[in-house]
Amino acid sequence: MKKVLLLVLSLLAFPLSAGVEYHQFDDPNKEQAYQNLISELRCLVCQNQTIADSNADLAKDLRQQVYEMLQQGKSQQDVVDFMTQRYGDFVMYRPAFTLKTGLLWLGPSAFLLIGVITVFMLARNKKAKAQITLDKQQQTRLNDILQKGEED
Amino acid sequence: MFKLKFLLPLILFIVLAIFLAIGLGLNPKDIPSPLIDKPAPAFSLPILATPDKNLSTQDLKGKVWLLNVWASWCVSCRQEHPLLLELAKLNLVTIVGLNYKDEAPAANMWLQQLGNPYTVSIMDKDGRVGIDYGVYGVPETFVIDKRGVIRYKHTGPVMPGDIEQIFLPLVQKLNQEPA
Predict the structure, then answer these.
(1) Per the CATH hierarchy, to which homologous superfamily does domain A22-91 belong?
(2) Where in the sequence is the signal peptide annotated (chain A) (predicted)?
């Protein structure tokens, strides 16, 4: 029974995937460029999706725009420039490295570096503290304790 | 030295807390437009009231104008609509409505029912001009100066107080600039 239900449900789910439009390419390079671009461009309506993933109306329009530009013989960089001129760096999932986006790119490694340096310094401090030399009194006491232990 | 060691985590925490607090206050939908201080993208689109005639950016040269992106399907456009009607009553600025991805009958009906604040509305049926203006959330409002340069962009519905505090002072300032 469960299997039948599952089968029926999966049959029902099929028409949903048919909602995505299909773009015909004559050149496999262009198709590759199209796939690259739509998985690099952010859908601005649903900000955590690329325009490849999103079903939003704007994402559909932008996919169409990308398709047409590539068909007109524009390069990938042309499309990227077109989009960033209109929507800003935010439209790129991996924004270009500029003065404005520098912190975004370098921030994580900078914080990691600070962490490593901190750990390193803490470890060195501890090591320095561990090498305490005992004075005469402490040394005799230590010897006493050690001797007692042997006698037990 | 002793004090600094204990104060440092506190200072770091405060700095972090300040950044996070600022982050909470920001609107993630408010993406800065790269079009500010750039020439408004040119268009020539059919007028909603008289579809056989076009309005182009050239026709608006020498005027300070607002471009308000709206649609009859847009819910938050209804929210800002009364404010635009009030602004239109003041007769201080040309308000161009960009009817974005809409159907003419529905758009006309909307204006009839709710009132028409627009000096003129133009139809961007396939949303191409919208893409040129970086429109991603209707409504959006642009302020364009006499030389045809975008000076301000407002994303989302115009809120009470925005007209008096943002739009009117800016329009007045731009009106005084030479064409």
Answers:
(1) Cytochrome C biogenesis protein (1.10.8.640)
(2) 1-18
